[in-house]
Specification:
About 70% of the residues lie in helices and about 0% in strands. About 0% of the residues are buried. The protein is built from 2 helices and no strands. The protein is elongated. With about 70 residues, it is an all-alpha fold.
Length: about 70
C-alpha cells in the first residue's frame, strides 16, 4: 500500500473515531454576559483611577523637587 493512501486512510479513520469536544456557537448579542461586561468596565475604571492618582502624585513630587510649591 503506498504511503499516500495509507495516510489518507488513517486520517479518514481518525475523523470517524474522534469527535469534537468543543461546540462552536456564536454569542447572542441580545443577551450580553453582564458579569463579563461588569468586569471589563470595572477593571477599566480602576486602571484609569490608578493612572490619575499616579499622575497627581508625580506632579506633586515634581513641584516639590523643583521648588514650585
Amino acid at each position: 500500500m503506498p504511503l499516500g493512501r495509507l495516510l489518507l486512510r488513517t486520517s479518514t479513520v481518525n475523523k470517524m473515531i474522534s469527535r469534537n469536544s468543543f461546540v462552536a456557537s456564536k454569542p447572542d448579542p441580545s443577551k450580553p454576559n453582564m458579569l463579563r461586561v461588569g468586569l471589563a468596565f470595572g477593571s477599566t475604571a480602576f486602571l484609569w483611577a490608578l493612572l490619575f492618582k499616579q499622575h497627581s502624585t508625580d506632579v506633586h513630587e515634581y513641584k516639590t523637587r523643583n521648588g514650585l510649591q
